[in-house]
Amino acid sequence: MPDDGTIDVGTLCEFVACALMSHDVPEADAGKVATLMVEADIYGYETHGVFRLRQYLARLAGGGCNPRPDISVAQETVATALIDGDNGLGHLAMATARDLAIQKAGAAGIGWVGVRRGNHAGPLALYVRPQAEAGLLGMAAAVGSANHVPPYGGSDLLLGTNPIAFSAPSGGDDPFVFDMATTVAAMGKIKTLLQQGRPMPEGWMVGRDGKPLTDPARKSEGFLLPIGGAKGFGLSVAIGLMAGVLNGAAFGSDVVDFTKDTISPTNTGQVVMALDPKAFGVGDEFAEEVARVFDEMRASPPLPGHDPVRLPGDGKSALAATRRTEGLTLNPALRADLNALAIGCNLAPPFPKYA
């Protein structure tokens, strides 16, 4: 392994799992969460991968997150279910919801599974990509883990980044995977810029005076901007209804800032869906038609100064394969943070050269 801050995927998984176990998370659960956290980095979602370990450990230490949850099905029909996450690590409840949605789609053509009493669970892409790899369509959405956005035209912070993701088979190595926040930028990107000492671009946040805010250290002085103005606001509200209110989970002023408050349960709400094309009279033909349309789009001549057309998800499989083989190269600030966490967990630093 090159000595440039690159770490073997298995070694990183083991470190993250051990850090979680040091906070009373059972070995099996710690392994599941660690694998999903590292998967986020493998597929390029660095703002929602091992970068989040400090936040998760803080909530476990503060009592805001249950290290030993009893995840259960609180409500169920043939095609729907509601998962109670028992305030455990969010990855556990969301992985349960995803797997149950896929199972129900196989039986009923569609599976729609909500989550209540959950927690932050990393990028939604983790919970829609498996559907596409199984020949299904996927969707997932979540109420953000802190409120950083006012209602359109207002000034009270009552909405989060409220992300949504979609997936579909595309007949090739890379399924269609589209994962986005309903804000111009996710708060995770701002936190990584803060960690690295870099400014934000204009247009991500504004202060309460309406002027651009570019210093990530001053993020609490302003608010994130929704995509598309009022349209992004409306989409964020719709997600809050589906992932929050429908599941008996937090929305609006009930949302707990999971970074600032490490003591209170967040009751984070999420939803995962799986849809089988066979329910509409098509099977493999769906992916074949998607491939044909996507090829047309990629063949569209780019505008001057633009790169060739790409579809969401393009290149992710090759990127993941390379990183599984060659390891993950983490930025210096994150390496230092993981080494510091190791000391607090009585573990050997994962990056001894930089300790």
TrEMBL record:
Transmembrane segments: none
Keywords: Oxidoreductase
Cleavable signal peptide: none
Source organism superkingdom: Bacteria
Gene3D superfamilies: 1.10.1530.10, Hypothetical oxidoreductase yiak, domain 2
SUPFAM superfamilies: L-sulfolactate dehydrogenase-like
Annotated PANTHER family: MALATE DEHYDROGENASE, OXIDOREDUCTASE-RELATED
Similarity section: Belongs to the LDH2/MDH2 oxidoreductase family.
Protein's recorded name: Ldh family oxidoreductase
Organism: Roseobacter sinensis
